[in-house]
Each structure stands twice: as structure tokens, then as C-alpha cells.
Design a protein that fits this description.
Two copies of one chain form a homodimer. Chain A is of the alpha/beta class. Chain A has helices spanning 16-19, 56-70, 93-103, 158-164, 233-242, 258-265, 277-297, and strands at 10-13, 31-36, 71-81, 85-86, 89-90, 107-115, 132-139, 153-154, 174-175, 183-184, 194-195, 200-201, 207-209, 215-217, 248-251, 269-274. The longest helix of chain A is centred in the last third of the chain and has 21 residues, at 277-297. Chain B binds a DNA duplex through residues 37, 39-40, 43-44, 48, 82, 84-85, 88, 116-127, 129-130, 133, 181, 184, 188, 205-208, 222, 224-225, 227, 229-230.
DNA sequence: CTGCACTATGAATCGCTAA
DNA sequence: GTTAGCGATTCATAGTGCA
């Protein structure tokens, strides 16, 4: 019997909790990478379906169970989330969610820190501005695919000066004289232009998709109420890191379509789900627009 | 009956778990601020007491219970910690610790992110370099004291005021006389830039107190092989934020004395506990040295 | 005193091999 | 099976000595 093939480059308008259980739309082990920024607990009540924080884990777990089923075995799932303060304290539902997802079989590989230099302004007596969010990395297996070379960054300024003065010692393997087992061979770095990044993400500029406009520079606050959860740089970075061209990218809470736009620009296939009609239409519009631009260049 | 008064500006050589239960040494509600970086699970086996990660929460909870008792009601506790990977996954003991501490009565107010720009190098197939650590903020009450204005000013300003009429030559003389890493660090520290009031901490340069020749003679390794857990900027920032002059600062795992040195420079009183004899002696040496520098100008 | 060459190393992690 | 030891790998900055 022919295996059901997953339909890609499609946007669903509906509820992830039920849509994801559809085995025809979402067969087992059919997508390469999942990234999403789910609606936060008790927030965005005016623009989304609020989920009470007491029920957040309970609400989200059936969805992560389906995502586990749908993800390919060597794939990754990036969950962008940050618990809000409530009554002066940080909520604990994210901590509980991690522990519960592990019981579902997920491996919690890493927690990337997205450092938002231009965080929302404000002043409170008990805390400072919140300038970072968690990007939790989950997998089904420990030997997942990771294309580290795709996200290399330019080497620091120190290198130019350092490489100018290479001694002979720099070209042989050098073992330091103390007890550290560190070895180094500086010549490995000769003429190196790019280095591997670390687990704190800082984007010099953050571009968000807004309702009404396609791509708009938005460092700071917009007058518009409906913004994408994350800037396009964020899904782009993880899509490059955890997928290759023509792979399938899923975002079950796609909002105004940022993940799909990033996927299209990076020559991946997208699948998006969005509950709210306005967001769904906006996402479709953004996708059509970027697809048109891409097709102009690659007909 | 007279209430027991807590003894300050003292370093204990012993085990926090038992020392902190001493009601005479540590009366109820007697310290204003606690900051520490406990030994991490399963690490530093050769230089500290390793705690297996499976037993970490169980080991630490009795200590946090005493800290709760000892902390003043409007005080704060900063816990600097980061879970290591184990078998390719992040451990969960920090998450569990937060949940358990809340059961003890602690409020989990905030999680500050300490972004370490020059993290340890390395490359692995499943992760990048770890460049951040958690600084968990706990309190007994929701209306704790927080001196936000104290961290808005550049470090250089308060330091310049503190050492107003001390010439640079005084430092140079001190450095050359003692050949001291500490004094050199401090003199560098005087011209430092401003820090930003949000919940991601970045220190431009990190100054650590180094263990000197105690280890060298005892173990036969380099004198610079063992460094303080955190740079002096880290405790300094939080001490300024959560205490005022003459307040009492406690660090139950003080290592080479960084917290005490920061407290002295900021005119607070310190209490430190350290289990390992070499660290204890090194901390005492660092404390004596900074006290001498301070007294040069304030006899 | 400054600049340049060169050394040292920081709460690292993974994978392989030997016992 | 399990664990312990060691090699391989990597970026950025501070410190030292000398011209």
C-alpha cells in the first residue's frame, strides 16, 4: 500500500490540537524540522486564544505528542518560549513542560538564549526589562542532523593581529605545560574567516512581519498591535542549522507567517497552521508576496 | 533576653550544610543578601566535592532551607548555576531545584542571564559552546528591597569616588610590591564601562581572582590553574542591586573569595564559607589584600 | 611608555578505548 | 553491560617580556 505523502507548502486555518492528529495531513515521521512560538499563557487575550497558565502544560502536551509523532527521527524541534511574571513571580509552566516532554520521549538537548537587545521598554520596582527568551531544542534521537557550517559567523577582530605574527610554535601541536589537557594548533586558524557561533543568539537587526506590510524594519515598538512573535532572523537561523534545501519545515502556530517566509527564502518547504482568521489571511498574503519575489529570480 | 548578634567579616572553613544550621553563628533573618555559585553536579571532582547529578537537588535543598531561615525578610538570594550536558542532553536538576525551592517558601522572582562572551572553546556534533549561565533570583517576600539606581551608574564612577584621592601610582607601587594578580585586576577594574539595567548581564572584561601558590606547592600544578567561579563584576553588580552600605552579604560557597572582595570594596560586611582548605586560605589572602588597599585610603 | 610578539588558558564536551 | 581516562577540537582575551 502506498504510503501517504505529506502535502507541503500549505497553510491550514484551524486548531493545531485537532489538525495535527489527522494522520493523512500529517503522517508519521514526515517533517524535517519544527519551530514555533506558541501563544503564551494568559497573554495576548485580545489577539489570540489565551490559555490560563495553570492549564498551559496540560493544553500543550497533546500537541507536543503529535509533533513527536510527525517529526522525522533525525529531526529537531525548536520551541521559542518565555514564562511571564505573574503576581511578581516568574511562572513555572515552562520548567514543568520540559520535564513532561521528556516523559513523552523527547530529548532536551539544549537551551539557546535569544538575547533581544531592543527589548520592550518599561520600569518596575521588582525587575528589569526582560531581554531574553528561551529557544528550547528537543529531538527524538541523540544523533540528529545539525548543519553547523551553515551558521558560521565572521571571526573576531583579534584574529587579524594574531595571525600576523605566527611563530614556528604556532604550526606544531602545542601541549601546555600544566595539567590541563588542552592542546592547540594555531595554524588551524590560519586564514580562517569564519568561526562557529555559541548558544546565545544576538541579531544585529530584527525584522518582523507586520499585518499590512510585508517586511518592515522594526527595532523598537510598532504602533501596530499585531506583530509576529519572532523576527525572521530567528527561524532563519534555526532552519539553516537543522535542515537542508527542500526539507519540510512545520510551524503549528505560525501567526503572520514568518516561519514560512523564512523557509521559502531558504528554499525549504513549509507547512503552517494558524487558528485566527486575520493571521491566517495575513500569513497567506505574506507568503504569496515572498513567493512572487523568489519566482521572479528563479522562475 | 539579648538576641544573638551575627558575626560578620568572617570566613569559615567548613561544610555549609552543617555550619548553616548553627543558630548562634547564623541567627534567623540576619543577613541582607546571599549570592553564591555552588559546586555543580558531577564536576570538579579533583578540586572540589563532586555531587552526583541524581542527588543534586536532595543535597542542595537542606542548604536552601537554612538560607531561607537566615535571610532577612526583605532580602534576596542570587543563585548562579548552569546544568551540564550529560549523555548529550541537558540535565534537569536546576529545573527541579527551582520547583522544590518554591515549596520551601521561596519566590522565584526572576532569571537573569549572564552572557559570557568569551566562553570555553570547543566543537561537538550536537551543540555549540555554552556561553551563558543562569542567575536565579529568589526572595522570601514579594516586596523585597531592590536599589535599581545603584546599577545605573557606571562602575567607574563609584570606584573613582571610593578611591578618590588614591593616585594610580599607589596602585602601581602596590602591584609591583606584591606582584599581585588581585591588585592588578582591581586597578584595571577602576576604569570600566557602564552596565545596563536589564536582565541580560554582559561584562566587557572579566576579572577573576586566581588561586596562588598554595595549590602549586600542595599539588604541583601551575599557580594559575584554579580561578574563581565568577568574575568580580558579577557579585558586585548584584550586591549593589540588592544591598546598601554596611549590609551583610553571605556566600556559602565562596571559593577564592570573590564575593567577599566585592563586598569589601562596596563597603558591605561579608560572611563566607568554604570547605576546601586551599580555597579557604586563598580567600583569606585575597580578603587581606583588598582590605589593605582599602585601608590605605580609609584607615 | 608604547607597541609588538608570543604565551597561557578559561566551571567544556564528545567519542573512543581499555579495563 | 559500565565506567574511567585521554585525545581531539575550539574562540577570545589577559598577561609577560623585550625592543
Amino acid at each position: 500500500m502506498a504510503k501517504t505523502k505529506i502535502q507541503t507548502n500549505i497553510l491550514y486555518n484551524g486548531d493545531s490540537a485537532s489538525l495535527l492528529t489527522d494522520l493523512k495531513k500529517f503522517p508519521d515521521k514526515s517533517v524535517n524540522f519544527i519551530i514555533t512560538s506558541p501563544p503564551y499563557a494568559d497573554k495576548r487575550k485580545n489577539s489570540y486564544e489565551g490559555v490560563p497558565s495553570a492549564k498551559y502544560v496540560e493544553w500543550f502536551l497533546p500537541i507536543t505528542l503529535q509533533l513527536y509523532r510527525i517529526l522525522k527521527e533525525n529531526g529537531s524541534f525548536i520551541l521559542n518560549i518565555k514564562e511571564h511574571p505573574s503576581n511578581g513571580e516568574r511562572e513555572t509552566y515552562v520548567l514543568e513542560l520540559i520535564l513532561e516532554m521528556k516523559k513523552q520521549g523527547w530529548f532536551w538537548i539544549e537551551e539557546y538564549c535569544w538575547y533581544k537587545k531592543n527589548s520592550f521598554p518599561g520600569k518596575w520596582p521588582n525587575r528589569f526589562r526582560d531581554s531574553w527568551e528561551r529557544c528550547l531544542h528537543f529531538t527524538r534521537k541523540k544523533d540528529f542532523v545539525m548543519y553547523q557550517d551553515a551558521v558560521k559567523v565572521p571571526i573576531g577582530d583579534w584574529a587579524a593581529k594574531r595571525f600576523k605574527s605566527m611563530s614556528e610554535n604556532d604550526f606544531i601541536r602545542h601541549v601546555s605545560k600544566n595539567n590541563s589537557h588542552l592542546a592547540r594548533n594555531v595554524s588551524n586558524w590560519l586564514n580562517k574567516k569564519k568561526v562557529y557561533p555559541h548558544n546565545v543568539l544576538v541579531f544585529e537587526e530584527e525584522h518582523r512581519l507586520y499585518l499590512g506590510n510585508v517586511i518592515e524594519t522594526a527595532v523598537g515598538v510598532s504602533s501596530k498591535n499585531h506583530s509576529a512573535i519572532f523576527p525572521i532572523e530567528l527561524p532563519s537561523w534555526f532552519i539553516k542549522l537543522f535542515s537542508k534545501e527542500n526539507d519540510i519545515i512545520l510551524d503549528p502556530f505560525i501567526g503572520s507567517g514568518t516561519t514560512a517566509v523564512a523557509a521559502i527564502m531558504l528554499r525549504r518547504k513549509y507547512i503552517g497552521i494558524e487558528l485566527k482568521k486575520e493571521y491566517y489571511h495575513e500569513a497567506q498574503k505574506n507568503i504569496n508576496e515572498i513567493a512572487e519575489v523568489i519566482n521572479m529570480k528563479h522562475p
